[in-house]
Design goal:
The protein is an alpha/beta fold and 319 residues long. The protein folds into two domains: 114 residues, Glutaredoxin (3-Layer(aba) Sandwich), CATH 3.40.30.10; 130 residues, no CATH class. Helix content is 53%, strand content 9%. It has 13 helices and five strands. Strands 1-3-2-4-5 form a five-stranded mixed beta sheet, with helices on both faces. A hairpin with a 2-residue loop joins strand 4 and strand 5. Helix 8 runs antiparallel to helix 9, helix 10 packs parallel to helix 12 and helix 11 packs parallel to helix 13. The longest helix has 18 residues. It starts with 14 loop residues before the first helix and ends with a helix.
């Protein structure tokens, strides 16, 4: 099986941990699915048509309603990621057209699904949307990551590329047999248990198990990457950061923003935000920020370009 910390090529990455950890605390879409099923059954009975779920279309950009949500989002996301854009016809944005064009240009590797919250309020409620526009990446039938507000194309590309990286090999074709002659990855029950806890959204158990693995296998940096990302995920999911207790509002905001950026895949932004705060802090606050930055840097391989750049900037900020 593919493990947290593995990446195609020679540099390990916690991409698998990012996928599983970000699913923790995800919104439950089953209620919306059940309601759509009930509406679909009612319509089928009235029209004398079959009550089975509709098949998803092959379009790279689709209009989503509460009735076709299961087919166009849940079912489709079992094969490719679906970026659900929540918007309003009363306040259209240029981002909709940009996402449509990007989805078409990427040739079906992901799908853009637009939902008008005025016409489909149940979808907005399911995602707990506080405002629009809002974009949620769904993979394997569950939310993966999200962002609010209109974003430029370069930022959209960053998010999309990260989603595609994290889900690579885990959706369509994920169950294919290994290539003949390719050695199978050896079984690792302890790591499997940690990953299973992560996949099930039990972040406390996942953190405990990854910590035990780190303690017993100090030379495996991929385990440290996974542990640090689980810790970030747990702070975000619980909305609780023990290290921030008793700190100023400014420090708490810096720490919280950095965690959220890590979850969204914006590592460089997370690192720079903490480094900027280090430059203007002193004493205990400076030490706290330095310690947290070093922990965040461990979510990436030591030779990752973003991590290397951040370590250089940290040295400048400290001295």
């Amino acid at each position: 099986m593919t493990r947290p910390g593995s990446r195609s090529g020679n540099n390990p990455s916690p991409s698998d941990a990012r996928l599983a950890a970000s699913l923790s605390g995800a919104v439950d879409l089953s209620g919306l699915k059940d309601r759509a099923d009930a509406q679909q059954r009612g319509a089928g009975q009235q029209a004398g048509t079959p009550t089975g779920g509709a098949q998803a279309s092959n379009a790279t950009s689709v209009q989503v309603t509460e009735q076709n949500f299961e087919a166009e989002v849940l079912m489709r996301s079992m094969k490719v990621p679906v970026l659900v854009e929540l918007g309003s016809s009363r306040a259209p944005t240029a981002m909709t057209a940009t996402l449509q064009q990007m989805a078409a240009a990427d040739g079906g590797s992901w799908v853009h699904a637009y939902a008008d919250v005025d016409q489909a309020p149940g979808i907005a409620q399911a995602f707990r949307a506080q405002g629009v526009p809002m974009v949620i990446a769904v993979a394997g039938g569950r939310p993966l990551t999200e962002f609010e507000g209109e974003q430029p194309e370069d930022q959209l590309r960053l998010v999309i590329d990260k989603v595609l990286e994290v889900t690579a090999g885990k959706l369509e074709g994920a169950g294919e047999q290994p290539v003949e002659g390719e050695p199978e990855e050896p079984s690792d029950p302890e790591r499997d248990a940690a990953e299973n806890a992560l996949a099930e959204g039990d972040l406390a158990a996942a953190e405990e198990r990854f910590q035990a693995l780190v303690d017993s296998r100090s030379g495996d940096h991929s385990l440290i990457e996974a542990l640090r990302f689980v810790q970030v995920s747990r702070r975000v999911a619980d909305e609780n950061d023990p290290a921030a207790e008793g700190q100023s509002d400014q420090i708490r905001e810096v720490l919280s923003k950095a965690d959220i950026q890590i979850m969204a895949g914006n590592y460089a932004g997370a690192f720079e935000g903490v480094i900027a705060a280090i430059r203007t802090s002193a004493g205990d606050e400076k030490n706290l920020l330095r310690t947290r930055l070093l922990e965040l840097l461990d979510t990436l391989p030591a030779n990752d370009p973003d991590a290397l750049a951040a370590r250089r900037n940290l040295a400048t900020a400290l001295y």
